[in-house]
Specification:
The protein is an alpha/beta fold. The protein is 22% helix and 33% strand. Helix 1 (11-28) packs across helix 2 (44-52). The structure holds inosinic acid (IMP) and magnesium ion. It is found in: Cytoplasm.
Length: 175
């Protein structure tokens, strides 16, 4: 059976929600500069859209963490494949992630980043699957809470495909 994508969150809904998040984040960081850290690769589409909606000064950095596992589940063993370019010491850090699933990746990442003495760390995720949580991760900003389904689009992939979809959908027809 061929793979098809069922729309879960439309392009308009995603864009509206990101505008609202940007406004909220700008208000909460009034008078400060936000050092946004994008978790590659999935977080990149979200970070670009979100950064454009934030009205306080921002700087950007990127980190790539991969968790060993198969295509759809994370093993909990996390590896830093690309570290940040700049120090985060004394900075107000906002981690930008595509999705929090088991929470293992972010649990590990927050622990690593806290040791580098940022002034503050907050977490913003486009999607949250709270039902799947295995590690307690404090999420400060959530785009959408979604049910336990495997989703793609807006940065999220299935075997590296579909990241460029401008909406969020569920893959159907996968064995
Ligand atoms: P966690 O460590 O289980 O929270 O896994 C987070 C990572 O797993 C995300 O950053 C995604 O890369 C991937 N992931 C989890 N759920 C999905 C999904 O529904 N679609 C695509 N990737 C997912
Ligand atoms: Mg990710």
């Amino acid at each position: 059976m061929a793979e098809t994508i069922k729309v879960l969150v439309s392009e308009e809904e995603v864009n509206e929600r990101i505008k609202t998040l940007g406004k909220q984040i700008s208000e909460n960081y009034a008078g400060k500069q936000i050092h946004m850290i994008c978790v590659l690769k999935g977080g990149v589409f979200f970070m670009c859209e979100l950064a454009k909606r934030i009205s306080v000064p921002v700087s950007l950095d990127f980190m790539c963490v991969s968790s060993y596992g198969d295509a759809t589940t994370s093993s909990g063993v996390v590896r830093i494949a690309k570290d940040l370019d700049e120090s985060i010491e004394g900075k107000d850090v906002l981690i930008v992630e595509d999705i929090i699933d088991s929470g293992r990746t972010l649990y590990y990442l927050i622990d690593v980043l806290k040791k580098r003495n940022p002034k503050s760390i907050q977490l913003c995720t486009l999607l949250d699957k709270p039902e799947r949580r295995e590690r307690d991760v404090k999420v400060d900003y959530v785009g959408f809470e979604i049910p336990d389904e495997f989703v793609v689009g807006y940065g999220l992939d299935y075997a590296q495909k579909y990241r460029n979809l401008p909406y969020i959908g569920v893959v159907e027809g996968v064995e």
